[in-house]
Model the fold of this input.
Amino acid sequence: MKKILLMLLISVAILPIFAQGADRIIGVWFNSDNSSKIEISKTEDGSFVGTIVWLSEPLDNAEKPPTDSNNPRAELRNRPLIDLQVLSGLTYDGKGKYSGGRIYDPQSGKTYLAKADMVNNNTLSLRIYIGISLAGRTVTWTRTTK
Done:
């Protein structure tokens, strides 16, 4: 009985360490060309999403905040890029790896599948692809502050 109780106590004590590993992705990240900052947060269901919180060019040629003008859905083309969710559905697989995500590219208006790998605490490697990950490309995001 003491062994079971001890194992249960150890399991409860270690659980936050595993959660902390999954939550390492939470924070603000520069995209690969430093043109935007994306804030990654955790949803109620435990998946991770990313929202644009900063743009290097906060105004377009008409001196207005840029919008999602390349969206394939006409009714969404006027929504601002700031606060636009571009990453969704990433789930933690363990050992710094995430999968099952989708990433939206406002420049092209296209949505891709995504998986991520925490290279270290300040570097996130994102694999963006259609169909199979071998046919995609990898971009690197760097941790920053708001």
